[in-house]
Amino acid sequence: MADIQIVETSLRDGNQSLWAALGVDTARTLTIAPAMERCGFKAIDFTTSTHMGVAVRYKQEDPWERIRLMAQACPTTPLQFLSTGFRFIAWETASPEFMELAFATLARNGMRRFALADPNNDAVSNVEVARLVKRAGGEQVIGALVYTLSPIHDDAHYAEAARTMAASRDVDALYIKDPGGLLTPQRARTLIPAILAEIGDKPLEIHSHCTIGLAEPAYLESVDLGATVLQCASGGAADGTSNPPTLRTIANLRALGHTVSIDDEAVAEVGRYFTALAEAEGLPTGRPMAYDAAYLRHQLPGGMVGTMRRHLTEQRVPHLEGAVIEELGRVREELGWPIVMTPFAQMLQTQAVLNVTAAERYAVIPDEIVRYALGLFGRPNQPIAANVMDRIMSSPRARELAAEPGMAPLGELRRRIGAHLPDEEFLLRATMPAAMVDAMHATTPEQRHYDPQTRPLFDMLEKLLSRADLTRISVEKAGFKLELEADA
């Protein structure tokens, strides 16, 4: 029996999986921060560069301030940043010097733990990024083994990647990152021993999703095999396409004889908060999911399946759904078995729909597929099929994209954007439209506290204030009275 630790994911992956990364702003984050600090979590999965861009684009909030304030509220619980290779906010490939500046700025603002998940499972690239993180001041680096199903992603593939990362002194631990929720207890029994045999005394963590009901039994099997950290979400931000629920996972671990050193009262408070938040804001809450064997063929995240169906319906060809799913498998094989995660999931789906609805396959090739073939998203798992590669590279668009200049050197970017800008401001303006950053600065921060119980009151007031036939509004309850009266 083992002592198992928990990484809490509601503010990052739980939010992203169920609420499209839009449900938790700075006020909602800071309100629950004291309780999260009391829980005794191994870490809090807090943000990514994509989430930082969302804060600017949709919330007009400063993501650096959010990191600083959360780090101040959680001095003993490390905040985790998820990095997906050599990119920051934009999908454009960034230079090592640019990434080192980004990591240094994140560390200076309070990020202590960095999870590295290369979309191609490129362990060599993860080692290069880990070196940058540590040199920039990051305290902990967790190297990801991104799990998927394909003929080339076998136990030997993951063992080799684990050996490469574990050999680096800059990688402190590894984790199996299963974005599709595909890991079964049966596969865990061969995969986890193969990985543990290569990583020595470095810890192994597990991160999976409940999309087809496999994550929880896989979690329990994994700890029996030697994993010591599980990544879970809380309350309304758990289950469904999100991660296993923290409370239920802890209860099952203890029932099986494992120890979980955690503040149960604080964990329960965190769960209640995310459930209340979802209910107050009309956000979807996760629920236990049934097993769906068809999912193994396409592996698309749940939200993308709905998007695919909407697009096919808009084109008046909903009956082609089965053909698109079959085509997605063919496209994935031809492109060298990319892992079905962002950005490859969206690229595979788009190409499959185009291949099925166009006059011939690859008659239309999106720019993202061309950039993938050019190597701009990293090193593919295996070479693209020769006939498909010829089709892509013979297009005029391929020549145009190949001629595009990459990201300018850091010094040139500094001169172009503003040599005296603080690093935080420079990084935003180097990766986002200036108008969005300007709009963020022009917005006055709202109150830094959120109470989900007040949401019905504000909804009622908004409706009443929109009526032209009212001149006076009075709201009363025990110990509270609010009166609003129109000017004469």
Question: What does this entry look like structurally?
Answer:
With 488 residues, the chain is an alpha/beta fold. The chain is built from 22 helices and 10 strands. It has helices at residues 10-19, 26-39, 49-59, 63-73, 96-109, 123-136, 155-166, 185-199, 215-225, 246-255, 264-281, 295-298, 302-314, 321-334, 344-357, 367-373, 386-393, 396-403, 410-417, 423-431, 434-442, 455-465; strands at 5-8, 43-48, 79-83, 113-116, 140-146, 173-178, 204-208, 229-232, 472-477, 480-485. Strands 1-2-3-4-5-6-7-8 form an 8-stranded parallel β-barrel, surrounded by 6 helices. Strands 9-10 form a two-stranded antiparallel sheet. Strand 9 (472-477) and strand 10 (480-485) form a beta hairpin. The longest helix has 18 residues, at 264-281. The mean pLDDT is 91.
